[in-house]
């Protein structure tokens, strides 16, 4: 029996739209196509023009489709961490007042109960990550289905994003003629691919050096625990080069790419770099140290601001240190500068898969691997979060959220028993079958 399936990821970035097509077979992901297109309609990680962004996405999809010989309609999409809010999720439900075998519907019911809490009107839940269950007081149950019990308790983590960001992501994917199958927070996707199991469990900081912004995410106990967003990225590095050297932005990008170094001490010592200066017929020569000083000044400011946020939660104590990824992570000297400013051990992650050996493809690959490893409980949690509000469970006061703000659940209406829970899980995966 052929159990292969196709997963297509879409990374909506400020600098580029990136598409990764993977063939999943025997739990292995084989990359069969990639597509990249220069971004339009983006500003600092956020969509500002839906039509322009959709055009860029379509171009990237077309390239990936041609390379993989795949008709791409369904995609999983990364969500930015801008404006992310994190909540605890907790609920407890009685299983019809009698011992019974716990099934998908019971799990869905207790998860739904944990989501019934008040949010500010501008936010919307996007992800629910299960942590553990308890059955009749027996704690630390990973999967309660098949067990016998009277009372089921659930603990998890809820993530919410501004509605405007979610609306624009969904609309731009739709405008590009695609079906959005699954939304995944970008830091979770990056952690999936850039960190090993120990780093995800014991705690590590992932810094994504994007073109429009830089994000620092704390991963601990396999959960996203904290994010800090700096509104500056690689594009401003090029802007600084352009302004200081009086050269065009295109030339500045080339200088950054071919000669850029974030470590002044180990830059191109003694070597001169030709620069096309606006209004002058002949190129001007600058030293490698001078170019590095321009670059490092901006990056040092970014790292220092992130350090203040990370120090506030004592992230420097995490044993995993810092992992750098994202497009700017390829720059020479970036690891040395980050380690000097952040004062923790630092390393750079670059995907090893053929065709993806650049840190800018880390999120796209992470989206594929994250989707590949989704289990039944993950899919039930996703379905719960994405139900219409009117369908969410209202249970007795034995169930409430542990996060703030919170509301007590006073209604007695039982959630409709979903006879199609298993079918929904089956349908999710069937969308990816080739």
Automatic annotation (TrEMBL):
Membrane topology: Peripheral membrane protein
Compartments, record wording: Cell membrane
Keyword entries, A-Z: Cell cycle, Cell division, Cell membrane, Membrane
Stretches assigned to coiled coil: none
Span list, region Disordered: 392-423
InterPro entries: ATPase_NBD, Cell_div_FtsA, FtsA/MreB, SHS2_FtsA
Pfam families, A to Z: FtsA, SHS2_FTSA
SUPFAM superfamilies listed in its UniProt record: Actin-like ATPase domain
Every SHS2 domain range: 7-194
Compositional bias annotation for Basic and acidic residues: 403-416
Family membership noted in the UniProt record: Belongs to the FtsA/MreB family.
HAMAP family with a match to the protein in the record: FtsA
NCBIfam families: ftsA (TIGR01174)
Subunit structure: Self-interacts. Interacts with FtsZ.
Protein name (Swiss-Prot/TrEMBL): Cell division protein FtsA
Species per Swiss-Prot/TrEMBL record: Bombilactobacillus folatiphilus
Phylogenetic classification of the source organism: Bacteria, Bacillati, Bacillota, Bacilli, Lactobacillales
């Amino acid at each position: 029996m052929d159990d292969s399936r196709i997963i297509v990821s879409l990374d909506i970035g400020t600098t580029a739209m990136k598409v990764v097509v993977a063939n999943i077979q025997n739990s292995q992901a084989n990359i069969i196509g990639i597509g990249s297109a220069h971004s339009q309609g983006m500003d600092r990680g956020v969509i500002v023009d839906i039509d322009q962004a959709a055009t860029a996405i379509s171009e990237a999809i077309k390239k990936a489709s041609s390379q993989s010989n795949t008709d791409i309609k369904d995609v999983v999409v990364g969500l930015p961490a801008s404006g992310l809010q994190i909540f605890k999720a907790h609920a407890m439900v009685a299983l019809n007042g009698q011992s019974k075998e716990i099934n998908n519907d019971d799990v869905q019911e207790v998860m739904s109960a944990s989501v019934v809490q008040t949010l500010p009107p501008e936010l919307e839940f996007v992800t629910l990550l299960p942590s553990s269950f308890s059955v009749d007081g027996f704690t630390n149950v990973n999967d309660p289905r098949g067990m016998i019990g009277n009372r089921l308790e659930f603990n998890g983590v809820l993530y919410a994003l501004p509605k405007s960001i979610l609306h624009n992501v969904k609309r731009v994917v739709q405008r590009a003629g695609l079906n959005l199958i699954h939304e995944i927070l970008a830091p979770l996707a990056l952690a999936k691919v850039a960190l090993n199991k120990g780093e995800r469990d014991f705690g590590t900081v992932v810094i994504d050096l994007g073109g429009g912004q830089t994000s620092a995410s704390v991963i601990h106990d396999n959960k996203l625990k904290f994010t800090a967003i700096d509104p500056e990225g690689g594009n401003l590095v090029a802007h600084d080069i352009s302004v200081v050297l009086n050269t065009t932005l295109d030339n500045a990008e080339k200088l950054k790419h071919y000669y850029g170094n974030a470590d002044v001490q180990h830059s191109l010592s003694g070597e001169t770099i030709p620069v096309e200066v606006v209004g002058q017929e002949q190129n001007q020569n600058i030293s490698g140290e001078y170019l590095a000083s321009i670059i490092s000044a901006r990056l040092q400011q970014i790292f220092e601001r992130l350090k203040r946020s990370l120090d506030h939660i004592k992230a420097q104590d995490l044993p995993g240190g810092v992992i750098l990824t994202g497009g700017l992570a390829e720059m020479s000297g970036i690891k040395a500068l980050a380690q000097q400013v952040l004062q923790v051990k630092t390393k750079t992650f670059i995907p090893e898969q053929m065709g993806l050996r650049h840190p800018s493809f880390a999120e796209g690959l992470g989206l594929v691997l994250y989707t590949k490893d989704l289990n039944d409980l993950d899919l039930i949690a996703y379905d719960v979060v994405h139900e219409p509000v009117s369908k969410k469970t209202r249970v007795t006061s034995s169930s409430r959220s542990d996060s703030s703000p919170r509301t007590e659940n006073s209604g007695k209406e039982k959630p409709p028993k979903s006879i199609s829970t298993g079918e929904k899980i089956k349908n999710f995966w069937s969308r990816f079958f080739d």
